[in-house]
Amino acid sequence: QVQLVESGGGLVQAGGSLKLSCAASGGTSGFGRMAWFRQAPGKERDFVAHITWSGGATYYADSVKGRFTISRDNAKNTAYLQMNSLKPEDTAVYYCAAVRIGYINYNYWGQGTQVTVSS
Fold this sequence. Notes:
Blueprint: E1 3-7, E2 10-13, E3 18-25, E4 31-39, E5 45-52, E6 58-60, E7 68-73, E8 78-83, E9 92-100, E10 108-109, E11 113-118
Parallel strand pairs: 2-11
Antiparallel strand pairs: 1-3, 3-8, 4-5, 4-9, 5-6, 7-8, 9-10, 9-11
């Protein structure tokens, strides 16, 4: 049973930084990508960034490009999201997700971690 557990959320002032972690357990073999999504109050869940598990190729939403960096440590079965130059509009619950090779929709989701950016 694969489980994803996020950590690292919190309250930060605008312009500050936070680093989120997503630890995977229960077997990451066959993971194609890991990703971060976010959901602000009253809004739909939006894609933030993804990284391929083997090659490390990355892709970002335009809203975070140049400010956020996704990375992974295969040995630790952990993905990260370094968030710099945070803005109040980045306030949301951040979720990590994983999709197995050959699948399109994300198979596994974490419980989410709150990020609040004050102005």
